[in-house]
Amino acid sequence: MIKLVLFDIDGTLIKTGGAGEKAFAKVCEQEFNIPNATENLRFAGRTDPAIVRDFFRLFGIEPTPEHFARFFSAYVIWLERMLTTLDGNVLPGVHELIAAFQTMSHRPLIGLLTGNIKQGALLKLTHYRLWDSFAMGAYGDDHEDRNQIAAIARDRGAKLLDTKLRGEEILVIGDTPRDVECGKAIDAKVLAVATGIFSVDQLRDCKPHWLVPNLSAVKAHELV
Asked: How confident is the model at residue 13 (pLDDT cuts 50, 70, 90)?
């Protein structure tokens, strides 16, 4: 029986019209005087701090706590602006799947497992009216390593449930190979959904437990 369900955000729950990447680019340009800095940065499935560290490395900026704080202080301001100006949407099947989990007789705890920093996750999901659907989460500012974030999410979920969770009692839902990898890192079951930049065939190579083109193609009772 699944006791904890952990959702990725970007490409899994929502598409924001690239708000996060555009906010990153604005910070690079406005705060660090480096235009077009994100052209050589990889975003999908990665943690925000790891992406910023790559930016610092590429342009010879010392990765000091002060520089990280400066970056993210500006980032959340730009992200909030971008969310209000770009077209985005909640992805197909998201509302229905969450509602189905919430109405089960043995209702699992529903949380987040994301590379977004917590404030970024809050801004995005509040904008799309999803934030209140999640009881807990683990975020990019908890750890730069996505696999470690998965372990943190597992432990936080276990604490709220007041039980020790086995891997088979956890379901991770995400749209990238890194989501599949981090789910497997904690021995969780994994549902891969091809609503991000990776195709069904690309995700199949990662061998998730379930694979769907979008969340409308799966029912909660099939997963738990």
From this structure: very high
Direct distance between the N- and C-terminal alpha carbons of the chain, in angstroms, rounded to an integer: 6
Give the list of residues 6+ apart from residue 169 with CB closer than 8 angstroms, or none: 1, 2, 3, 4
Query: Residue 43 pLDDT more than 90?
Result: no
What residues contact 194, with CB distance under 8 A and at least 6 apart?
Answer: 175, 200, 203, 211, 212, 213, 214
Angstrom CA distances, 217 to 87, 147, 210, stand at 24, 27, 11
Q: Which residues contact 89 (CB under 8 A, 6 or more apart)?
A: 14, 15, 128
CATH topology of domain 4-16+89-223: Rossmann fold (3.40.50)
d(CA 111, CA 115): 13
pLDDT digits (tens, 9 = 90+) for 64-120: 999 999 999 999 999 999 999 999 999 999 999 999 999 999 999 999 999 999 999
Residues forming beta bridges with residue 138, ordered by sequence position: 113
How far is residue 134 from each of residues 76, 180, 181, measured CA to CA in Å? 20, 20, 22
Question: Is a pLDDT exceeding 90 seen at residue 44?
Answer: no
Quick one: which H or E segment has residue 202? helix 200-204
| Separation of alpha carbons 192 and 63, rounded Å | 33
Beta strand 14-15 pairing with 89-90:
antiparallel
CA distance 56 to 107: 43
